[in-house]
Design brief:
Pfam families: Phage_cap_E (PF03864)
Largest sheet: 2 strands, antiparallel
Strand order of the largest sheet: 1-2
Distance between the termini: 36 Å
Protein name: Phage major head protein
Number of helices: 0
Number of domains: 1
Shape: flat
Radius of gyration: 18 Å
Organism: Escherichia coli
Length: 65
Amino acid sequence: MSEGVVASSRYPKHWLTVGDPAREFTMTQSAPLMVLPDPDEFVVVTGEIIRERGRNAPVSFFTGG
């Protein structure tokens, strides 16, 4: 593929920050494909968003038709 991009189950990202002290970060993300066995089914996923400061907030995701 062009620009060195290849199909993979994980995608690394690398960046530097300047300052005192300078920092170097590496992050690896996965991007699974969400596929419903039956497109007419309704799915609800409930969890929490964890914030660095403050309280956790409940969140729900709805998919389906």
